[in-house]
Design brief:
With 150 residues, the chain is an alpha+beta fold. It has a single domain, classed as Phage minor tail protein U (Alpha-Beta Plaits), CATH 3.30.70. Helices cover 21% and strands 41% of the residues. A hairpin with a 3-residue loop joins strand 2 and strand 3. The longest helix has 18 residues. The two termini are 17 Å apart.
Length: 150
């Protein structure tokens, strides 16, 4: 028994890639400024216990996701809606397959265990390039990660 971090990340990455909306879908923060298209990166956030069954501990694994697109582009009025158009089908796929094909109990959209799904727009400068970003908190509940002793 263990928390299969790599397996959960791979399932989330697969969902994002399947939409075809991203230039890159990374399982790390980019070391240099991403390209001109929409980039999505995923990295670990907080991990904490969700619940205890008869003898097993379930965990919440928050996956922090960030969409990047260069801020200086035209038309300016389409930057935010374009970012949302890229992430919207990913969110729909998470809602449709909220168990990630059996890798999780659920994506905790409503914060059953304290952290709800959340999207927050912002800006980030990397390598002298300003990006419009959307930061996502994606809490994933995984059952029976660790066995409890007596």
């Amino acid at each position: 028994m263990s928390l299969d971090v790599a397996g959960v990340l791979a399932k989330l990455q697969s969902h994002a890639k399947s939409t075809g909306h991203f230039e890159q879908v990374l399982l790390h923060e980019p070391k240099s400024a991403p390209g001109q298209g929409v980039t999505l990166c995923m990295r670990l956030g907080p991990i904490f216990p969700a619940s205890s069954g008869l003898d097993n501990v379930s965990m919440v694994m928050v996956v922090l996701q960030r969409l990047y697109v260069p801020f200086l582009q035209s038309p300016e009025d389409a930057i935010d809606s374009g970012l949302w158009a890229a992430i919207d089908p990913v969110i729909q796929s998470y809602a449709t397959d909220f168990t990630l094909n059996g890798a999780a109990r659920a994506i905790d959209f409503f914060g059953e265990h304290g952290v709800p799904f959340r999207a927050e727009p912002g800006y980030l400068t990397q390598d002298g390039t300003v990006f419009r970003v959307i930061e996502l908190d994606v809490p994933v509940i995984v059952n029976d990660c660790y066995q409890e002793g007596e």
